[in-house]
Design goal:
Structural class of chain B: alpha/beta
Structural class of chain A: mainly beta
Distance between the termini of chain B: 48 Å
Radius of gyration of chain A: 21 Å
Oligomer: heterodimer
Largest sheet of chain A: 9 strands, antiparallel
Strand order of the largest sheet of chain A: 8-4-5-6-21-20-19-13-17
Shape of chain B: globular
Order of helices and strands of chain A: EEEHEEEEEHEEEEEHEEEEEHEEEE
Order of helices and strands of chain B: HEEHEEHEHHHEHEHEEHHHHHHHEEH
Largest sheet of chain B: 7 strands, mixed
Strand content of chain B: 5-15%
Distance between the termini of chain A: 61 Å
Strand order of the largest sheet of chain B: 1-9-8-7-2-5-6
Helix content of chain B: 40-55%
Shape of chain A: elongated
Radius of gyration of chain B: 24 Å
Largest interface: A-B, 28 and 25 residues
Number of helices of chain A: 4
C-alpha cells in the first residue's frame, strides 16, 4: 500500500497514514462506555461488524445460553463513514480499560484503517482542548453468527428499566430462577427457593406526568416461562442506557430483553429458557 | 491405540476444527462416553503414591473411584453422560491385541525385575504398563453406574463405533473418547479430556469432523484411508510412512488402492514396503460398517434415573471402603442435578448462519499464513541451532 503524507483531520498533525476505512464520531463517549460495561461480563472477545449502516455486534456467552446483539446505527454517529465491511475483533476488557480513560461527556471517534492491526479511539474533551488518543490491538476471532428468526412475540412488556432491575435483584436473593407469567391481568415474576418464595406482580399503568414510568403489556396469548436470574441480573447492567426496557416472550422461545437507544439503535439480550426435563 | 499422529495433523491443517473450552460449556448436552477407555485411564491415573487404590481386602478400587467421582463431575456440570462398553473385539484387531498382550507380559516381567533391583521410579513405570482392564473391573463399573442411575450400553464390538453411531443419529451431542479413531467411525463431534481429573485443568477439546474434512480438503473415504495409512488398530503401519508422507500420498493418489499401486510399481525403486499381510480394504470396511446397535434399537433408549443412595452406600462404603460422608454427599448432588430444570441452550432456537464463501476463503488464507509462519520460524530456529553448533567453541 502506498503511504501518503496527509493532514490528520482531528489533530492537524502531518503524519503518514493508510487510507482510513472507518471513522465514526459519537457525541458522548458515555454511550459506548455503558454498552461495553453492560456486556463485558457476558462476552470476553467479540467482533464489531462495521458497514455503511452502522456498527453491529453479536456474541454468545461461553455457555451459549445468552446472546448479546447490539446495533449502533449510522445515524447515532455524526459523522459516520465506513467504506467497506470490516470486522474489528476486540477484547472487551481491553476496550473497557481504554474507555475508562474517557470522561462521560467526551466526544469519541472510532477509526480504523484498511486491513487494520489496531482500532484507534480519540477522546476530545467538550470543555477544554484536551485530546487523547488510544490504539487497541485487534484480534482474529472466528465467531459463529446466529440467525435470529423474526418472531411475533405472544407478550410484549414495556416497563421502567430500574423496576426490572429491582425485581431481578430482589428475587435473586431467594432463588436461582424466576418464572415470568404474563396474563391479561398483568405480569407476575415469581420464584421459590430454600428459604421460601416470592412474587412481584405488575399491571398496566399509565403515568401522564412521567411516561417513563408506564407499564404496558401487549398480549396475544398467555405466556409462562422460567429463566435464570443470574443472567437477567447481568442484563440489567444496561439499565443506565435507557429509562425503559422491553421484554418479549413467547412460549418455548428465548426471552428478548431490549434497551432502546437513540436513532433506532439498540442493545438486545436473548436468553434461552429453562425447561422441564423431557423424560 | 487410536490413529497415530492424527491429532497433530488436525492441529496443523485444520486448526479451526478444534475448539477448547471448559467442561461447563457443555451443560445440557448428552454425551456418549467410551467406558472401556475411561476405566483403563482410571486404573492408570487414579493412584496414590504410585500404587493403585485398594480397599482393606486388597481389591483394586481405582476404577470405581475414577468412575464415581469423574462421572459426578460431569453430571455436576449439567451434562448427561451415558457409557458405552466394548464388546467382542473385531477379528482384524487380534494382531494389535496380541501385540498389546505381549507388551503387557513383557512389562509384567520387567515389573517383577524392577521390584527386585530397580528404583522406585522404575517400579512405578512398569506397574503402570501392566495395567489391564479385567471383566471384574467392567462388571463393577456397570454395577456402579446402575446404582448411580447413569445409563450404559454394551456395544456389539467397538465402543467408539457405538458412540459414533449415537452421536451421528443425534441421540447424544458428541462422543467422548481419547481415541481418535472415533472420528473415523463418523462421529460428527469428538470430545477429548472429558473424563480427566479436574486438577489437571485440561481444557475439553471439541473436534468437529466436518471442519476436519474441510481443512484437509478430503471426503470421508479419503480421511479414513489417511487414517489407515497413518496406522490404526486393525492393520500394521507401513514402515517409513509418517504423518506428512501419508498426507501427501493420499493427496496425490486419492485412494488407498492407488497408493498401494504406486508403492508396488514405484518407478524410482522401492521406497516403501507394504507389510506382507495388509488387508486395508477390511479395515476400511470396519470403519464404514462396524457392527453396532442401530440408534433406533430399543437398547439405545436411555433413561437417567435417580441414584439408589442406600445401594451406593452398601456397595462403595461397606464393600469397597469409601468414605460414607463423601458418598452420601455425592449422591445428594446426583439427585439434585436430576431434579433441577434444565437450562436450554440457544442453539436449540437460533441456528448458526452459514459462513459466506468470502469468509471461508479468508479463514483458509489466515490458517495457511499461520502455518507458513510457524514453518518459517522452525526453519529459522534450526538454522540458528546449526550455526551455533558449527561455531567452534570458546571463540564466541
Amino acid at each position: 500500500m502506498s503511504m501518503t503524507v496527509g493532514e490528520c483531520l482531528l489533530c492537524g498533525l502531518q503524519e503518514p497514514y493508510k487510507a482510513v476505512l472507518l471513522e465514526a464520531r459519537l457525541e458522548q463517549a458515555n454511550l459506548l462506555k455503558k454498552v461495553v460495561d453492560a456486556i463485558k461480563d457476558l462476552v470476553q472477545d467479540c467482533n464489531f461488524d462495521c458497514n455503511d449502516s452502522g456498527v453491529a455486534l453479536q456474541a454468545m456467552d461461553n455457555s451459549h445460553v445468552a446472546l448479546v446483539s447490539m446495533m449502533l446505527k449510522a445515524e447515532s454517529f455524526s459523522p459516520f463513514r465506513c467504506d467497506r465491511n470490516i470486522a474489528l475483533g476486540i477484547n472487551l476488557t481491553s476496550l473497557m480499560k481504554v474507555l475508562r480513560c474517557a470522561q462521560n461527556e467526551d466526544i469519541l471517534t472510532l477509526k480504523a484503517e484498511d486491513a487494520p492491526d489496531v482500532v484507534n479511539l480519540v477522546f476530545e474533551s467538550s470543555e477544554s482542548d484536551r485530546l487523547s488518543e488510544y490504539d487497541i490491538k485487534l484480534m482474529d476471532i472466528d465467531q459463529e453468527h446466529l440467525g435470529i428468526p423474526e418472531t411475533e412475540y405472544a407478550a410484549t412488556i414495556t416497563m421502567p428499566s430500574a423496576e426490572f432491575q429491582r425485581i431481578c435483584r430482589d428475587l435473586m436473593a431467594l432463588s436461582e430462577s424466576v418464572a415470568i407469567e404474563a396474563t391479561k391481568d398483568g405480569v407476575k415474576f415469581s420464584c421459590s427457593g430454600d428459604i421460601g418464595n416470592g412474587a412481584v406482580t405488575l399491571r398496566s399503568h399509565t403515568n401522564v406526568d412521567k411516561p417513563d414510568l408506564n407499564v404496558e403489556i401487549a398480549l396475544s396469548e398467555p405466556v409462562a416461562l422460567t429463566f435464570s436470574l443470574k443472567y437477567l441480573v447481568n442484563f440489567c447492567k444496561a439499565s443506565g442506557l435507557s429509562s425503559t426496557v422491553k421484554l418479549c416472550l413467547s412460549n418455548e422461545v428465548p426471552l428478548l430483553v431490549e434497551y432502546g437507544l437513540a436513532s433506532n439503535s439498540y442493545l438486545r439480550f436473548y436468553l434461552a429458557p429453562k425447561i422441564g426435563d423431557e423424560e | 491405540m487410536g490413529i497415530k499422529q492424527l491429532a497433530s495433523i488436525i492441529h496443523e491443517h485444520a486448526p479451526d476444527a478444534i475448539k477448547q473450552g471448559e467442561i461447563k460449556n457443555h451443560f445440557g448436552r448428552k454425551v456418549a462416553i467410551d467406558a472401556s477407555m475411561s476405566i483403563y485411564s482410571f486404573l492408570i491415573a487414579v493412584r496414590s503414591e504410585g500404587q493403585q487404590l485398594m480397599n482393606e481386602n486388597g481389591e483394586t478400587t481405582s476404577h470405581l473411584m475414577g468412575m464415581f467421582y469423574r462421572t459426578l463431575r460431569i453430571v455436576d456440570n449439567g451434562i448427561k453422560p451415558l457409557y458405552v462398553f466394548d464388546g467382542a473385539p473385531p477379528k482384524l484387531k487380534s494382531g494389535e491385541l496380541a501385540k498389546r498382550f505381549a507388551r503387557k507380559t513383557e512389562a509384567t516381567e520387567a515389573h517383577e525385575e524392577a521390584k527386585e533391583t530397580g528404583t522406585a521410579e522404575e517400579v512405578e513405570k512398569f506397574s503402570r504398563r501392566t495395567v489391564r482392564v479385567t471383566r471384574e473391573h467392567n462388571d463393577e463399573c456397570k454395577r456402579l453406574l446402575t446404582l448411580m442411575g447413569v445409563p450404559y450400553i454394551v456395544a456389539p464390538t467397538e465402543a467408539e463405533a457405538q458412540c459414533a453411531v449415537l452421536a451421528r443419529a443425534g441421540k447424544v451431542y458428541a462422543a467422548a473418547s481419547e481415541d481418535m479413531d472415533t472420528l473415523c467411525f463418523d462421529s460428527p463431534i469428538l470430545l477429548r479430556h472429558l473424563t480427566f481429573s479436574e486438577q489437571r485443568k485440561e481444557p475439553i477439546l471439541e473436534i468437529h469432523l466436518d471442519r476436519v474434512l474441510a481443512g484437509l480438503a478430503m471426503d470421508r473415504k479419503q480421511f479414513v484411508d489417511l487414517c489407515i495409512l497413518l496406522g490404526c488398530d486393525y492393520v500394521d503401519p507401513v514402515p517409513k510412512v509418517g504423518p506428512s508422507t501419508a498426507l501427501n500420498l493420499i493427496r496425490e493418489h486419492g485412494t488407498l488402492e492407488n497408493v498401494v499401486d504406486f508403492i508396488k510399481n514405484d518407478p524410482k525403486g522401492k521406497k516403501f514396503t507394504l507389510p506382507d499381510d495388509w488387508p486395508f480394504e477390511d479395515a476400511r470396511d470396519l470403519f464404514f460398517s462396524p457392527d453396532v446397535r442401530a440408534a433406533d434399537h430399543p437398547d439405545c433408549d436411555f433413561k437417567w434415573n435417580a441414584p439408589d443412595v442406600e445401594g451406593l452406600v452398601k456397595f462403595l462404603v461397606t464393600e469397597k471402603g469409601f468414605s460414607e460422608d463423601r458418598v452420601r454427599s455425592a449422591a445428594t448432588k446426583l439427585t439434585k442435578n436430576l431434579k433441577t430444570s434444565q437450562q436450554a441452550r440457544l442453539e436449540g432456537f437460533f441456528k448458526p448462519v452459514q459462513k459466506t464463501e468470502e469468509e471461508v476463503a479468508s479463514l483458509k488464507r489466515k490458517n495457511e499464513d499461520k502455518r507458513e509462519a510457524t514453518k518459517k520460524k522452525q526453519k529459522l530456529e534450526k538454522k540458528e541451532k546449526k550455526e551455533a553448533k558449527s561455531k567452534p567453541r570458546g571463540t564466541a
